[in-house]
Amino acid sequence: MGFYILSYLCIFVFILATGYRVYRQITLPVHLRWEVYPVQHETTDKLAHSGSYMEDLNWWEKKHGSSLFNEIKYMVPEILFIRGLWKENRNLWRVSFPFHFGLYLMIAAFGLLVLQALLVLWGGDAGQAGGAARSLLDGATVLAGWTGLILGVIGSVGTFCRRLADPELREYSSFVDYFNILFIFLFFLFAFLTCLFVDPLLEGAKAYVFGLLTGGGSLNSYVPGQSFCGGAAIVLASLLVAYVPLTHMSHMFMKYFLYHDVKWDDAPNRRGGAIEAAILKNLALKPTWNAKHIEADGQKSWLDIASSAPKEMK
Amino acid sequence: MKKTLKPSDMARPSDCLCHIEPGELSPLPPPYEDFNQVTVPPLKLEKVKNIETSLDDTVAIGIPKPASKEEEEKLVRRFLSGLKKLFEKENNWTFLQPLLLSMEHCAKCQTCSNACPVYEMSGGKDIYRPMFRAEVLRRIYNKYLKPGGKITAKLTGDIDLNWTTIARLAELSYRCTLCRRCATVCPIGVDNGLINHEIRKLFSQEMGISPKELHEKGTVQHLRVGSSTGMNPLAAKDSVDFIQEEMEEITGYKVEIPWDVEGADILLLHNAGEMLAWPENVGAFAIIFQAAGISWTLSSEAAGYDAVNYGLWYDDVQFSRVAVKHADIARKLKVKKIVIGECGHAHKALTVIADRLLTGDLNIPRESAMVTLEDIVLNGKIQFDPHKNDFPVTLHDPCNVVRAMGIVEPQRRILRKIAPRFREMTPHGVENYCCGGGSGFAIMSGYNFAEWRNLVSSRKKFLQILTAFQGEPQDVPKYVCAPCSNCKGAIRDIFNYYHAEERSRLYYGGLVEVIVNAMADMKKPIIQFGEEPSWKS
User: Which domains are delineated in chain A?
Assistant: First the structure.
């Protein structure tokens, strides 16, 4: 039961930390535009040359067109295969891709295990062992699990060695940078050893996830915690889930905001629109910058200051 | 073996943290090999004895050395106070979200370094890596402003904070042209250019530290006198009168430049530097607009005849003041739209960045001149004879027009129609390289900064230009079309510095000059290659 309690606690931390990060982003004030082109949700004719709607004569008289399809077409290979790194930094991609893809497959395998557990609990006939749905899920889980573990081990060892061996990376790396990779490597290693020696068909993992959903219920007599490697894999996986959103590794999901809220945020401010309302709120804020030319006294708003010329030079 | 520098070295005592030795800069091809052993000339000791010079071979700001230990400590405290304000919405709503995201998610993969022309051309000097200054700021923030930071710094990356660190960081923020090429290649979306921009703001807005060309002679003069060139409204009108006369003399075309026409369709905003340094650009705009029958005007109100907004590069408050002034002038003139002339940073400042600042009747439609000109040239409003432009032409993409706004094709469609020997640089469009004069560098020339710019930050552009004209005979005049005043300034300087006119017959100018040069009813060419006209009348 101790493993389950640890897992629950770590999932709770993950939800809290991720929720906090997302909440903070969505409650930050609207910022000045700072997009950089190409903006991938542009319409196809513009995207062909990385152009924007501002290339059109009197663009403000037209509806601001965008293409979700173009965005998805770009984002899927970017997320799954780290296409940007492939294009710009091929040597690093060779270790970074298996590392990241291994993690994705772990998440996919976990998702499939949850699905299996749900099928067993509420799937009726479809949830019976030996049924087509269960067999398909079993196969996909084993495939995702094994591929992910192999890629993850290779990728994390490669990433660690690369960071240590390449002076370009080494000189800018701190203890935490190495610790993070080592942490992930140890998870991959113990999970891999568990599968190799004890749980090749991920039956134990399946049972553990079923237990997670049922407060400790069991599908079969073996659960990973009964072996040292299995226990270590559960502890490391749980701690990793809690740890990721507390670090820069949260870029895994925060990348959404980096792209959508900054790099591609090209939404024009229309009179009477929501953006204008947000700007008016911002302009009422009272800055306290100390340089004399700002002439901020804590009472004047941004609007007051922006509408005045400075009396002081410095 | 190459000496590597780490972010923590910024606090280390040294007279010069990073020095470029002869031969370390990226090599130039023939006939410019004689520049390959040239390096930045030493600073004159008598001029720099009282200012901070310990970063590298040049000085952009010229920060006075503190007189006492107490003053040093006071300045460190002010720096930390400013750093804290960067993360407060009251003080930095303008860029708080982009800053937080870029500060918290860098994986230190160095992909950005490979994209940076300054880092590449310097021969790979560590301090010029885009993430170097970002990492310095990140470490200071984590250690000195986050709870428990002094303990966790041992694990997350340590740095000492003293006056040396701060003075070097201020200078280092003026070794990046804010071209944001680094931001386009980051797989995560981190923008080290943005962090650099925020460092500049901290120094200006909290400590009153900025290059005098950008502040005293720049935004302050702009708001006080009417233009960063120092021209008041009367002087601006005189200049334009002179341009009218000159245009008739040069091209044989009589042009009337309208002032303060209320209700005109277009308020044209020029970089006032054009009136002084490239008057033919102002004249060419007038010829095109007049020939196409456009309803347009210039403004003679202070700041209304100068589109620049140097605040974009270092100070959000100064930026806001200038942008509001521009919009207010257009509002009073009751024009239908503002068209930004050939000035890259003015494009971005007023069209994109100020978009989240201007509200109500100040939110007047704003358009790039590239778009307005494309409509005139491609829709038959003027007749052209492209054979008049029978010389090799290449196009420089101003970062602020292309990468920051996505205005990529209009200028190309124009050139394809009227310049039969047009060819692209490699790479071009949104992947272009900065002219090296971005973010104010083109107008900064104190101490030996101009030499540093010509040798380091503009070097990649010079190489690109040479490559674009590879295969053309040496004695054929070649034209670099640079539709941006700052870019033209930087390109003018590199052509002079490397004697490119004499050695390769390289010339430069704007887009409107190429358009006017090809107008069918023009009696004389507007483009000259030295004393030689570009076509015979």
Answer: 2-33+82-263 (1.20.950.20)
